[in-house]
């Protein structure tokens, strides 16, 4: 089955710095890709989604890059602020298949 | 946006006890899921369902039963709770026809003493 590896497990950056979280996956049929944000003590909120081919999505200060050739998905935060401190999870699924494969998460701390 | 609610939000029980966690979604989604979240493991799928009366086994089903009574309601049952089932449980829903995104409930923190 699909294997999703997320790195790094912990990331600490200063306010204004950039941060990059990366997920690699194994199944070339994977089609839907998601990033979720989980603030402390809260549920998972859908942050961004990317479908199909190499694609860039931007929003909320984040950029998502998908490279299907390398089977790599990344979440780039260009200028971190303390409100970005949270756990981030990538998720991968296949067309017609509603189950997600989640990465184990990255705990991001933004130091003021 | 999908609305998914869970109850109770916190639960403490003893080893061997019976626990039922409830989930309700109000957006007519066909798929519902139960996950557990543990440090170092991320989210792991316990059971899921694609409609009333349907149940599919997830990745970590041992010790759990589930039942989907209506399109809105999905229950997770722990009939002989063990300390290893101490965890944060999330319910989620999605609909294949409207997009693959899953929407999560607020979670239930279960402690088994």
Describe the structure concisely for a colleague.
The complex is a heterodimer of chains A (112) and B (113). With 112 residues, chain A is mainly beta.
The total count of helices of chain B amounts to 0
Distance between the termini of chain A: 41 Å
Task: List the total number of helices of chain A.
Answer: 0
Round the mean pLDDT of chain A to the nearest integer and report it: 89
pLDDT < 50 stretches of chain B? none
Largest sheet entry of chain A? 6 strands, mixed
Spatial shape of chain A? globular
Rg estimate of chain A, integer Å? 13 Å
Radius of gyration of chain B: 13 Å
Elements of chain B, N to C (H/E): EEEEEEEEEEE
Tell how many strands the DSSP assignment of chain B holds.
11
In which range does the helix fraction of chain B lie? under 10%
Helix content of chain A: under 10%
Quick one: overall form of chain B? globular
What is the overall pLDDT average of chain B? 93
Number of strands of chain A: 11
State the assembly state of the protein chains.
heterodimer
Approximately how much beta-strand content do the residues of chain A carry? over 45%
Beta content of chain B: over 45%
Structure characterization notes:
The complex is a heterodimer of chains A (112) and B (113). By secondary structure, chain A is an all-beta fold. Chain A is 0% helix and 57% strand. Chain A has no helices and 11 strands. The model of chain B has no long low-confidence stretch (mean pLDDT 93).
């Amino acid at each position: 089955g699909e294997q999703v590896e997320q790195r790094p497990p912990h990331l600490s950056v200063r306010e204004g710095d950039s941060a990059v979280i990366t997920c690699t996956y194994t199944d070339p049929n994977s089609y839907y890709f998601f990033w979720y944000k989980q603030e402390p003590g809260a549920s998972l909120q859908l942050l961004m989604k990317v479908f199909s081919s190499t694609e860039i999505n931007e929003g909320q200060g984040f950029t998502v890059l998908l490279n299907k050739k390398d089977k790599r998905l990344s979440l780039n935060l260009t200028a971190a602020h303390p409100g970005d401190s949270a756990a981030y999870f990538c998720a991968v699924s296949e067309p017609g298949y509603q189950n997600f494969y989640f990465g184990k998460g990255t705990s991001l701390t933004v130091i003021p | 946006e999908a609305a998914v609610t869970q109850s109770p939000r916190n639960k403490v029980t003893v080893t061997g006890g019976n626990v039922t966690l409830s989930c309700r979604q109000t957006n007519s989604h066909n798929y519902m899921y139960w996950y557990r979240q543990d440090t170092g493991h991320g989210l792991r799928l316990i059971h899921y369902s694609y409609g009333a009366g349907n149940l599919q086994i997830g990745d970590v089903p041992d010790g759990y039963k589930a039942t989907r009574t209506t399109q809105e309601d999905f229950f997770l049952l722990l009939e002989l709770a063990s300390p290893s089932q101490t965890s944060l449980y999330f319910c989620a829903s999605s609909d294949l026809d409207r997009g693959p995104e899953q929407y999560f409930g607020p979670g239930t923190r279960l402690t088994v003493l």
